Amino acid sequence: MHRLTRQIRFSVDPFGNEGDAEGFNSYCSKPAGHGLGFFICLNVELQGSVQADTGFLINLAEIDAKARTEAVNIYKKRIQQMISAGKNVTLEKNAEILMECWEGLRRSFNPQKLSSLEQLVNPYKKITISGDSNMLLYSEKFEFAATHKLWNENFSEHKNFEQFGKCANPQGHGHNYVVEITAEPENWKDFDRFDFQKKVKKLFIDKLDHKNLSKDLEYYKQHNPTVENITVHCWQTLSGKLKGARLESVRIWENDRAYCTYRGEQE
Length: 267
Ligand SMILES: Nc1nc2c(c(=O)[nH]1)N=C([C@H](O)[C@H](O)COP(=O)(O)OP(=O)(O)OP(=O)(O)O)CN2
Description:
Strands 1, 2, 3, 4, 5, 6, 7, 8 and 9 form a nine-stranded mixed beta sheet that branches. The chain is α+β, with helices and mostly antiparallel strands. The protein is globular, with a radius of gyration of 22 Å. Helices cover 33% and strands 31% of the residues. It has two domains: 2-131, 6-pyruvoyl tetrahydropterin synthase/QueD (Tetrahydropterin Synthase, Chain A), CATH 3.30.479; 136-262, 6-pyruvoyl tetrahydropterin synthase/QueD (Tetrahydropterin Synthase, Chain A), CATH 3.30.479. The protein has helices at residues 60-84, 91-108, 157-164, 193-208, 213-216, 219-222, 227-238, and strands at residues 2-12, 38-48, 113-122, 125-130, 135-148, 173-185, 211-212, 245-255, 258-262. Pfam families: PTPS.
């Protein structure tokens, strides 16, 4: 079984009174919109078998055509309705729109199965519907900078350098970590995104930011500050602490080539 993802980028003119600017560049945005509008970016993930004759799970052009017909119309209709009624497109409304697209798109694909639909609200924030669990999830990225040294006191110096290489450098080395926290809100209407941000920042990010993890934090006296252990530390710190939401996963990037995801011990 394969999973194939296509990103669909389009713009919605909130007032809709200039007509559709279709545009010719789907890499940028198609429909292209007018001036400053709503830019929508959807990741459509399909699951299925690859056909022997074409090598396709499905032709990307077919995903484009279906997603553009279904999703563009839903976003356009719902955004324009809300704006003309003088209402904000809140996070709750945005989640409802995504759910409507999910239902529509799910019916459009066969035999391929829509396995996930993700809206990148901005480069650091997304809403995801996953077909595996049918969960509607909210994710946000944070960052912190820290220094660390990878070392095990029970190893000889030789073994430490053999195991950890340059990461065992006595003076340590630094990273700009990116932390993505994903939560499942119990109720999107009451989900307090700012409380979520405040908790993640206060309980985790601020404790590690601009610190020497190996020296300044008790946790890392017992645990080597690898990206795997930092992810578990983050999970343990935040699990059960988010108001009106269940912590679903923690993903931490040590750099843009390495990240670790943790969903608790039960996974
Ligand atoms: N399983 C893990 N392996 C390594 C971790 C880790 O947290 N978990 N961490 C490190 C070091 O912290 C290191 O700084 C990161 O390694 P690497 O990406 O290899 O370092 P560079 O960016 O300098 O990459 P080069 O290809 O070596 O230039 C190591 N391993």
